[in-house]
Amino acid sequence: PSADDLADEMEDVDFEDEGAEEPDAEAWETEDDEGVEDGMEAQDDSEVTFSLHSASVFCVSLDPKTNTLAVTGGEDDKAFVWRVSDGELLFECSGHKDSVTCAGFSHDSVFVATGDMSGLIKVWRVDTKEEVWSFEVGDLEWMEWHPQAHVLLAGTADGNSWMWKIPSGDCKTFQGPACPATCGRILPDGKRAVVGYEDGTMRIWDLKQGTSLHVLKGQDGHQDPLTCVASNQDGSLIMTGSVDCHAKLVNSATGKVVCVFKMESMAPKAPTGEGEEAESNSVESLGFCNVMPLAAVGYLDGTLAIYDLSTQSLRHKCQHESGIVQLLWEESSAVVYTCSLDGAVRLWDARSGKMISEYRGHSAEILDFAVNKDASIVVTTSGDHQAKVFCVQRPDR
Questions:
Q1: Contacts 24+ apart (CB under 8 A), 196-200
Q2: 3-state DSSP call for residue 26?
Q3: What kind and span of H or E run contains 142?
Q4: 156, 176, 227, 396: which has the highest count of C-beta atoms within 10 A?
Q5: Phi–psi pair at 260, nearest 5 degrees
Q6: Nearest CA-CA partner of 369 in 67, 125, 159, 60
Q7: What residue ranges in 232-386 does DSSP mark as E strands?
Q8: What is the pLDDT of residues 61-92, one digit of tens each?
Q9: Cross-strand pairs, 371
């Protein structure tokens, strides 16, 4: 048959019908997650699959002390604490009434906190599985535990950052500009926090005094909302990432911008309105290497940029086929992990810029992931309603 005949035959096929089947297929897939996606996603490199969520799984954290427990939160308004070794459920963090977008363990793994989009935050004692505290704030943007104390910090859409002692609930607020506090991080000294805002400003707060030590705005700040912040191991340097595609390196003691990393090859953003999402790019995630003066920046267009901090120059560009959602450095080596919208986890050698390995198993985008301390496992969460545990330990590393 000629190409034209084939084209005619194609026209006879009624694609509408197939579309109509889809909702059923999806409902069926949640009951039996084996086999349905076989055609599309035969490869599954994971060791354990946790499938108690019934919608997209937005966040995951590992317990810092033993790295044996994970907490995941999802669009089904549920959060679960489960064992990484076999996916066994420990307990459900019940009572949320909106998507659980934040979840994490305290520094000593005694408590686990879960937060939903509407601003309901709950804290559970892990050993007794009992809720010990809850509080309601405005729409929640981010939440983080203090690195040395039972103290919880969270940022909300009204621009405030909140700090509570757990479980007493003693509270302090840090008033930002009248726009969402989009990201935040407590610095390693435990005395200061850096918070980024939707108006492009960044503040360094003194947690004890409740005062702002430095404010970066205007030329020093970003032109668009901040998406992520990170600090190096001793907290002397902060990096901020934004929708404006810039990453800024800031001296945390002086509040001065040390340098700005811009992607040279960025196509200029089309000067159009709402409808032009396809054109946009932004910094989605960033982080510092602990063992070399390197920093990594992950972009929505799939670029992983490795910058050399000593020369303040671009060292490598590692290209992904789809957007990077998050990146993490291995604790004691120059290896960067990325997860992306194509559902894969990749390990990159930051010294050479080469990919070390790639792990697949999700049939939708990965939305969050965590790496354990000795870099032997990665736990991922995805739009396919599942969390997965991948074993990434390799004898040659």
A1: 196/222, 196/225, 196/226, 196/227, 196/228, 196/229, 196/240, 196/242, 197/159, 197/225, 197/226, 198/225, 198/226, 199/225, 200/224, 200/225, 200/226, 200/242, 200/244
A2: helix
A3: strand 140-145
A4: 176
A5: -120, 125
A6: 60
A7: 237-242, 246-251, 257-262, 283-288, 294-299, 303-308, 313-319, 324-329, 335-340, 345-349, 354-359, 366-371, 377-382
A8: 999 999 999 999 999 999 999 999 999 999 99
A9: 378
